[in-house]
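Review form for a predicted model. The reviewer records the input and the model, then writes brief findings.
Reviewer: anonymous (R2)
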Amino acid sequence: MRLKSLSILLLSAGLAACAQSTQPVAVAPASPMFDVEALKTITQTLSSDAFEGRAPMTAAETKTIAFIAEQFAAAGLQPGNGDRWFQDVPLVEITADAARADLLFSKNGKTVLRAKYGDDAMVWTKRVVDHVAVEDSELVFVGYGIHAPEKGWNDYAGIDVAGKTVVILVNDPDWQTPDLSGEFGGRAMTYYGRWTYKYEEAARQGAAAAIIVHDTEPAAYGWDIVRNSNRGAKIDMDRADGGMGRVAIEGWIQKHVAETLFKAAGQDFNALSNAAKSRDFNAVKLGVTVSGELYNVIRKASSKNVIGVLPGRERADESLLYTAHWDHLGRCGADANGDDICNGALDNATGIAGLVSLAKAHAAAGPARRSIQFLAVTAEESGLLGSAYYGEQPLVPLASTVAGINMDGLNIVAPTHDIIVVGAGKSELEAYLETEAEAQSRRVEAEPTPEKGYYYRSDHFSLAKKGVPMLYTEVGIDVIGKGKAFGQAAQDDYTKHRYHQPGDEYDPDWNWEGAVQDLSLFYHVGRRLAESDVWPNWRAGDEFRAIRDASRAGAAQ
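Model under review:
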């Protein structure tokens, strides 16, 4: 999904239509003690080969969720779904035959290029059928594939793409802007820049297929990530329409493939890409066609979210929410040593270890005024599906969910002087983060790479779309005693060599002091909110404020 690097994401919700103070409460909760050995043991266990990369809808899932439920019970929680620890999440698994998944590009009946599955292209379908195909579908370059009426921007203006295959650039038109002053937030990626949006819009426009051009810098990850994240079985929600509202084929092609196709069409890829940065851009028919088909094996099953709760002592119907995803990629492309298990140690066995540790800390402190939920969600790597389902079927109404903290990879490098907020200025919850960071003699800084769109890449976003505001953080890079260059090098090394690869394995030499530092921060932010009666809000003008205001107004009736 999204590229996390070493990020820890702070997910928060809970705002009010009524005018209440949103400043942190005056009395700080006592600092908990976190058991480092327990953090190590849980992480090592979940990321061992015995758990086979924790893919949903496999035998490894059964083992994983049973282990988490046992840990929640031992921590002192109660089942969070009545008398059950689990919430069923209906999913469908679609596995295409990779041997027959190449794309064939032609011009005037002659083959221009065969894009090999895995090396040149990654394709799939969200349609729950055993066969889909496009045949001699005309390619149309639609720039960034954006239709944003509120901005007067429409890359589909003046062209009918029904039955055609649209070729799309990743990110927003202004992603190279050095600051945040562009039409689409400058360097800060908007949802229009995310690949998920581009496929959705192509379907709304009636396209037969949608192909995004991969370019490492605007995508914020290399081709290996695209390949490892999309090969094998694709998992999606088991939707009422069977996915028929999607285009027949979705996917990516490497940039060099696009350059070859554009050259065959008598066009210059770089020139057209530059032209697409303007609202005056007009879609271009390339005079090249594509044919491709997918033969699929369909399997339907329920995966599970795992949830425990510490009931509140006074306002039990209001809840603070902690989340982390338990799943990873399962079996993936083998590395040079033949290892084909993507163990997901950092991503996100550490997050589950943090979730259990926070459960223990809050249970040891006793019930807060409000309830505290601990939610381990499924299928994050498949498109935030477990959290999306929870957003549709919450066990506590979202209007009564005060805040949430989402952990997606703990800091296993070293303690830092800083913590980085993503989407700075969105929510009043930043006041809580700043207060607790200051108590640790740390500072809160804005994300240095907003163009990577981290805001849309983890489970917090599923709740944001429902109006629940989020405070989203990344691990700091200013490592105490070693500086920013050391911290940045550690993140870059993980991204290049281990993220979504078999190399993301438990290392007994990890330094857990930074994880404890951040867990303490998240504990204090959460405990303050759980002990208060305030409803922090999105700031005026934020895209989610109106949704939350409406839900809170309805809750007050």
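Findings: The mean pLDDT is 90.
Further findings: The CA atoms of residues 122 and 499 lie 18 Å apart.
Recommendation: see findings above.
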